[in-house]
Write a structure and sequence with these properties.
about 290 residues, mainly beta, 15-stranded antiparallel sheet, 15 strands
């Protein structure tokens, strides 16, 4: 066989292998972010909610108290999971969001929202992935909607995570200190190109733990310039599956206008694999919020 042709075949095989590995890493990052290692997980409660802070570049921080309950063991109606969020403070107080997650990832998610001012449940189609979630710096794509197949992935290499995770630059009551837990961890650098045209970012580069697949940092780029960063403080659940991770905080910053965002919880506010009543994830729960 011609040496040039042989070299080309080996090169093509190596590229294909790298692409397969990149897709595998992306799938496992998705697994971690959707807490697929556990049947259920809760963040906060009515009496002890967790918090999300939105900090404009200039002006006062706005902090919301809320609770979130994810049920990954749903077996009915073609659903894989149901996700319930309840706002406990601020202008959104009493608002509840119930998200139906289909087994088929190609099907859209369904959103049912309880609006306390109207005392009605409104059903909404899947929002745009770029829309802000609850007025925060984080988008629906960041939290719910972005799937591995929505991007084209390439593995840029292996390295060691340096430094600490980011934290908001101004005081916010109750916020944690910046986490240095990932420092020194071996990570992959994964570049993911969006498949959406005229999107708010062209690609993002993510530092992914090589053992747990926790995505510690994602930097989003547009026209070759960084425009947004999201850091996540992941911790182990102590399961046999190392992908069983929970986060203590998300930190985000818009590098164009200086806005910052933070979602954080105490360890005692996070519970998983409990005995739960599936009726919690229902429209009846939403309708009881104003009572």
């Amino acid at each position: 066989m011609n040496r040039c042709l042989l070299a080309l075949l080996f090169f093509s095989a190596a590229v294909a292998a790298d692409q397969d590995q990149a897709r595998r890493i992306a799938e496992n990052v998705w697994f971690v972010n959707h807490f697929m290692a556990v049947e259920n997980i809760s963040y906060g409660s009515r009496r002890d909610p967790f918090h999300v802070a939105n900090l404009p570049a200039d002006g006062k921080a706005k902090v919301h108290a809320l609770e979130r309950h994810l049920y990954n063991a749903w077996k009915e109606g073609g659903l894989r999971a149901r996700d319930l969020v309840i706002f406990r403070s601020g202008k959104l107080r009493g608002t509840g969001i119930l998200v139906d997650v289909p087994q088929d990832r190609q099907r859209p998610l369904s959103f049912s929202i309880w609006l306390p001012a109207l005392r009605k449940v409104r059903r909404h189609t899947e929002p745009d992935q770029g829309d802000a979630w609850g007025g925060s710096l984080f988008t629906y794509g960041d939290i719910y909607l972005r799937r591995p197949e929505d991007e084209r992935h390439e593995l840029l290499g292996e390295e060691t995570f340096e430094g600490c995770l980011g934290m908001v630059s101004r005081p916010v009551k109750g916020r944690p200190d910046a986490s240095c837990v990932p420092r020194g961890r071996p990570v992959w650098r994964l570049r993911s190109h969006t498949r959406f045209e005229n999107w708010w970012y062209d690609y993002r580069e993510t530092l992914v733990d090589r053992e747990t697949f926790a995505d510690y940092r994602s930097v989003y780029y547009k026209d070759g310039k960084p425009v947004k960063v999201i850091d996540k403080d992941w911790r182990s659940m102590g399961l046999k599956d190392s992908r069983g991770q929970y986060w203590l905080y998300w930190y985000g910053k818009d590098l164009r206008d200086g806005r910052e965002g933070l979602a954080w919880a105490d360890r005692k506010q996070i519970r998983w694999n409990r005995e739960v009543n599936p009726k919690l994830w229902s429209l009846a729960t939403l309708r009881r919020l104003s009572r």
